[in-house]
Specification:
The complex is a heterodimer of chains A (305) and B (180). Chain A has nine helices and 13 strands. With 305 residues, chain A is an alpha/beta fold. The longest helix of chain A is centred in the C-terminal third of the chain and has 25 residues. Chain A is elongated and about 115 Å long. In chain B, 12% of the residues lie in helices and 36% in strands.
Chain lengths: 305, 180
Amino acid sequence: MRVAYAALALALTAGAAQAQAPHVALVPVLGENVGPDVGRPILEAVRGALTVAAPSARFQLAGDEALATALADCTEPACRGELVSQTGGYAVVLVHMMRPAPTGIVELRLEAVAVPGGEALGEPAEIQLPAATVTSPAAAQAVLGAIVGPVASALPAAPPAPPETARVLIAVNADRAEVVIDGESVGQTPVAPVELTVGTHTLAIRGTGWETYSRSIEVPVEGLRVDAFLDPTADQAAELAARDAQASDGYAADEGEWYQQWWVWAAVGGGAVVLTVLITAIALAAGGSDGDQEGFPVPPIPGGM
Amino acid sequence: MRRFLPLLALALLSCGDGSTFDTFTIRARAPSGMEGAGPAIVVGAVDRIDVVIDPADNVSFDPVNYPPFEGDDVIVRISPAGEYVLSLQAAWVERNLERTDTSWIIDIPLYLDGVQDTPPPGGSPSVTVFFNQFGGPLGEEPIGVSAPVALPWPPEAGSLTTIQLLCRDGYETECQTPTP
């Protein structure tokens, strides 16, 4: 088991926003003597029966108690339209359930509703589910198969699925460079991850003192990281080189070549003696190790097998 | 004295068994709140930085036993899952950070302590950087995190791998609140 590090990192990158596919929302409206324990298996049975009757549609359970209560109290299309639009479905099937007695049959009514208008689609289907089928979704589905056909056929065709998107992280070696994707600026570096549709996009990065970076990127569904290394412009490169040279050669100024100074050689002789003593002492103290090393160690990765 | 430095370096290099380590650098970069850069992460909100190198394909690093570096500010360990974890305490971060107009940067020097004589069986490992904050409901939790980045392996001497850190969704307040 990899520790939480990996999971967390994956959650960041692979949590790309998958566009939600179009679906028909099934919303339970629980009436008298019907609680969630009874409603849930019936709802599953309704979904199973509708899926058989309309295989091209995708049915998704939706709604909460507040929505169900609000829908039970509202019959006008305008009011219903507002409520069913909250489900995210392109159409809604309201599943009304009530029980005349605490046990026994369940009266079921399926009502297809348009989104966002809230008007009824076709005629509702009604059935009385025998008590024996209430706790058995398979049995209930078999019974429901006889009545869901008109409801399924009244549903509109599913709209085309929105394009899938994925998260793209762009890391650039220059700050305050402008990042342009498909001709639109997304900000200056460092930029937060952007959501792009899966597929091909153009990426351009422009910054003062840097050559423009331009390429095409192919965004897969699991997301993408782009490491963009901008080259300095000629002027910028010359300036950087001059700065480096100034920093490293600052002391070679006006006294002639250093090796022409007599005291250099005197110092070399003396220094050699001191160094010998010093290095011997260090070697002894360190037990023959390599001594100080800048940075922190990373061991090699063991081989396979 | 500066005139002797080249000689001194030459003398030191000519001693010993000739084995030297080549440093490579991981650069962690955090946004400081410029427009378009995502929520800022203030330095004072970060109590510890963890650099995690994960060998691919369920390969594990062998256990190591390095002493702490720079006092107790830098700890190297191998996690139970076989990942290499370098932990940098806030004091080390304060000493080594560099600020730019739009971000702050930490350069973390590393070197391969040994010979990588066979390629890693799983290909290049990935490196992920975490900014942790102490004192949350879980005791400590990451407030900033990077995406995993492939680390060329064995690492090339002098190479620089830049890791962009981001404030985690829902942790914007923690990212901008220095801890006591």
